User: Fold this.
Amino acid sequence: MIRKPTASVLAAAFIASMTAAQAMAASANDLCPNGNLMTIRVSKISPKGSTAGFEKAVADHAKWYADHGYGEDKIVSAPILVYDEANKTEVQATNEMMTIHTNAHPVPRDKHDAAWDAYVAEYRANAEYGAETTACMPK
Assistant:
């Protein structure tokens, strides 16, 4: 029997992956001296969430970085494109979104505040965390 993960399991995975991403970003700074760190995440919009709610989380996420002295960091969202076999064309997926965080800087845990917790809660309320990749993009 395959069990569907509960919301608390998904939330724990989301927090763990964000922490792992921050640790990876810290070590990646040493690996990317002539480039910019970029983190790409793919999230699935949850049945109780919405694309609009996810977009608000992205906007609040970007605002947090800008308001806390991480002005080089840019966070945007993009729809995932999938092939529609019936129409033989690409269409936007209705339940998946990508976030792209360029010039990603690690944020120490002691800098997390109520606004940080609020945008993380928005993500959790609207999406299930999916895959993440961090890369060194040439300048």
